[in-house]
Description:
By secondary structure, the chain is α+β, with helices and mostly antiparallel strands. The protein has one domain. The protein is 45% helix and 30% strand. The protein is built from 1 helix and 4 strands. The protein has one helix spanning 57-102; strands spanning 2-11, 14-24, 41-48, 51-52. Strands 1-2-3-4 form a 4-stranded antiparallel beta sheet. A hairpin with a 2-residue loop joins strand 1 and strand 2 (14-24). The longest helix has 46 residues, at 57-102. The protein starts with a strand and ends with a helix.
Amino acid sequence: MRFSFTHYIERGDEEIELAVAYDVSEYYEATREQPAEGGEVELISVKCEGKEIALTDAEETALLAVCEERAGADQAEYFAEAAEWRAQCRRDDAMMAIWERDQ
């Protein structure tokens, strides 16, 4: 799953706004035959004013840590929105069935 957010870093006295996109691989729990895998976070792009920006190793490490901290909440929000969308579809289908029955 791909997520994005805005983040700020400081370089010298300047604060820079970054548009960050990152990916979280799907997590599979361990079974008897297979160890747990997935759930890795990967930076996809980091842009400043619409252009890719080079980060120092320290900045990239810190930004990756921010992504890892956000990943659980971002995934939970995604799944909650998906569940709400499915529930709304079921409500719409039920209302259409009632409307069609009454016509």
